[in-house]
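FORM 7B: Structural annotation worksheet

SECTION A. Query
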Amino acid sequence: MIIVLKPGASKEDVDRLLERIHGLGYRTHLSRGEQRTIVGIIGDEDKARSEPFEAFPGVERVLPILTPYKLASREAHAGDTVVVAGPARFGGGEVSIIGGPCAVEGREMLFRIAGPVKEAGAVVLRGGAFKPRTSPYTFQGLGEEGLRYLRECGDALGLPVVTEVMDTRQVGLVERYADLLQIGARNMQNFPLLSEVGESRKPVILKRGLSATVKEFLQSAEYILARGNPNVILCERGVRSFEDSVRNLFDVSAIPNLKKASHLPVIADPSHATGRADLVVPVARAAIAAGADGLLVDVHDDPAKALVDGPQALLPAAFAALCEDARRIAEVLGRTVVGPVGSVGPVGARV
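SECTION B. Predicted structure
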């Protein structure tokens, strides 16, 4: 349920309304726009409907939210949320590109790749320190050592860094090193983990699950939002299908579908969507054309020797060409690709 306040509603009106809602055991989400202030009620909507909120001073109208993802919906927030991390800005017509190796394999390797990645146009450096692998016998990541390399490299280049967190016990550790937290496809419905990163205020990149519907995807985002973290970035990375010539089936329709249903920014991961370097560029182009707010791309300077996902990694030169393609496509659509800057700025959300 959302409560729309009148344009002239006073601070006392808002405070009185919030006090009543909180006294009933509900949590609230306050959204202040240029013309209207909206209060979202988080809790049992059936019970809330019996309360005479329309009678409170300053209240214009009370509206039920019909979707199960209350805070993520366009009903709750009509405008686009823009999530900011240093130079990166996701949403609101701007496009930011994330690049780097799928896994941090070592300090020298990371620095060798990160420099060209920034020069090409990436505004966030990616690299996995903890790797969820299908086989328990394959490379699982360097753990905290990898986090230290990632932080050192990001600081040296003036780039915010993103890495995956796989377990509730890792959240505090990863938060100390990373500017953005990533929830992988296999953890999209790990509800304790979603709730834990919801307690953080750092941006969260939430990847779509292997077989998740758009509705289920947004309900997972709701877990993070409901805990108070508004900085959620949705990531389309393909779903499982009968097709075996690609790693996953990239659902390009999910991008405009999500953006119509939700105010949250949406990015695409063409690397994991295809599993093939030769398909990454055309799929990335399609994602930008469909309205994606950013890209998450695997880059490696020697894919044949990569410890994780070498076949899908772009060489630095190919990544640079992709960044230029993204700029051109965005320009045609009246959008802007964010360029790198020299230092890391504040991390947070702008609405």
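SECTION C. Observations
Residues 82 and 91 are 5 Å apart (CA to CA). The first strand starts at residue 2 and ends at 5.

SECTION D. Sign-off
Analyst initials: ____
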